[in-house]
Design brief:
By secondary structure, the protein is α/β, with parallel strands linked by helices. The protein folds into 3 domains: 195 residues, FAD/NAD(P)-binding domain (3-Layer(bba) Sandwich); 132 residues, FAD/NAD(P)-binding domain (3-Layer(bba) Sandwich), CATH 3.50.50.60; 45 residues, no CATH class. It has 12 helices and 21 strands. α5 packs antiparallel against α9. The longest helix is centred in the C-terminal third of the chain and has 21 residues. 45% of the residues are buried.
Length: 435
């Protein structure tokens, strides 16, 4: 039986802030708009719905979009890309999504780095800890250490605090001089400065240590303690949870599969776009974190620009959006400059530390390889369920294969899929094998 087909003038992939803004802007021009997301509810990580809490801005945005005629398709995963259409899968099976213009709002994922004990239950990403708390995992009384790099740590600590956890400290890897220089420039963005001050006041009683990082997590069946470096000191802290995050990595797998050009001038590449959010492909646009991590404000503005351009052309983009978007991206660049230095020296990691947790590959098993493809063929590193999304980013960040970044596989299927879906009569875009 042939799989269902849906035709759209504009198809938006991802229902975070960028995708919601894109769908609403495109629908405003009276065209047929489809909005697809793998999750059951809209909002992405920024506006993730919290159990027992009032509706998020995403809920209102989606309601308005649906009311205007946007076709919302929840829990739908993109499996492969073909010429002017995508192969997707939902609870009922395979479906083909055809489009005249495509907007990629695929967001980003957490950057996780390995250390001894990082696979113990109770150790999560900083963003992952937020998601678990919002989805109803009990936090009351839990002693949690938040560690890593960047402003996400403060947001994670604040969320955990609101849900009842006792945050025993925040370990920020960035040294004090960089933090002060970043803070000194915040008055250029008054709104961001006000948000930072309000957040810091809420966390005023919470220990905050700069130039600090997690070295190891300890425990039998779950994490019971954590060893940290605080300046030149080494400390051991008893805890029930560790939330560690070193920033975000753009999700570019679908863009790669389509053949979009990437901006490789950064440690973790992102989709290259012009001032209209158009990629190197004439009918494909991108917005939000896929174009480089920039935060919610930038995502909303870029989504709106992409939606207008994809639906009605470049002249339909309100001029005010461009100026606001440039300002938002300037803040993102300022943040990246201070929290993500061009080079970083990471602590030595024991050879028996798991690097690829899907395939149980340790750091020592990758020694002697200079190319990630050779390492993958010999060890299966990156061939597990996450398809290298976690270990590949870690390998790139740690510089294990200098000059050869380990990127996730861009061949179909982009995500695990049912055999019936893979057997659907569909011709994927030819992009070649991934390294």
């Amino acid at each position: 039986m042939a799989e269902p087909v849906r035709d759209y003038d504009v198809l938006v992939i991802g229902a975070g802030p960028a995708g919601l803004a894109a769908a609403r802007a495109a629908r405003g021009h009276g065209v047929r708009v489809g909005l697809v997301d793998a999750q059951a509810t809209p909002g992405g990580q920024v506006w993730r719905h919290a159990v027992g809490q009032p509706p998020t801005p995403a809920t209102g945005s989606l309601a308005a979009a649906i009311a205007s005629g946007v076709d919302w398709r929840a829990q739908t995963q993109i499996v492969a890309a073909g010429p002017d259409e995508l192969l997707a899968e939902d609870a009922t099976g395979a479906l083909r999504l055809r489009y005249r213009a495509l907007i990629l709002a695929t967001g980003a994922r957490e950057l996780l780095l390995p250390f001894p004990g990082w696979t113990l239950p109770g150790v999560t990403g900083a963003g992952g800890a937020q998601a678990l708390a919002k989805q109803g995992v009990p936090q009351a009384g839990r002693r949690v250490l938040v560690a890593g790099r960047g402003p996400l740590l403060l947001a994670a600590a604040d969320t955990l605090r609101r849900y009842g956890a006792r945050v025993i400290g925040i370990c920020e890897r960035t040294p004090a001089d960089r933090l002060w220089r970043f803070a000194a420039g915040l008055p250029r963005w008054p709104g961001k400065a006000a948000q930072a001050v309000a957040l810091r006041l809420r966390l005023a009683r919470m220990p905050y240590w700069n130039d600090s990082e997690v070295l190891a997590a300890e425990g039998d069946d779950r994490v019971e303690a954590v060893e940290i470096r605080r300046g030149r000191q080494r400390l051991r802290l008893a805890c029930d949870g560790v939330a560690v995050g070193y920033g975000l990595v753009p999700n570019i797998e679908l863009a790669q599969s389509l053949g979009c050009a990437l901006d490789t001038g950064f440690r973790h590449p992102h989709v290259r776009v012009d001032e209209h959010q158009r990629t190197s492909l004439a009918t494909v646009y991108a917005a939000g974190e896929a174009c480089g991590v920039g935060g919610r404000d930038s995502a909303l503005l870029e989504g709106a620009i992409a939606g207008h351009a994809a639906a009605a052309g470049e002249n339909a983009i309100p001029r005010a959006l461009r100026g606001r978007q440039r300002r938002a991206r300037a803040f993102a660049a300022w943040l990246r400059h201070h929290f993500e230095p061009a080079s970083a020296t990471w602590p030595a990691i024991a050879g028996d530390t798991l690097l690829c947790r899907c395939e149980d590959v340790t750091l020592s098993e990758l020694e002697g390889f200079s190319d990630p493809r050779d390492a993958k063929l010999a060890t299966r590193c990156g061939m597990g369920a996450c398809q290298g999304r976690i270990c590949g980013a870690a390998i790139t960040e740690l510089g294990l294969f200098a000059g050869h970044p380990a990127t996730p596989d861009r061949r179909p299927p982009l995500f695990p899929a049912r055999l019936d879906t893979l057997a659907a009569p569909f011709v994927p875009t030819k992009t070649g094998a991934s390294p």
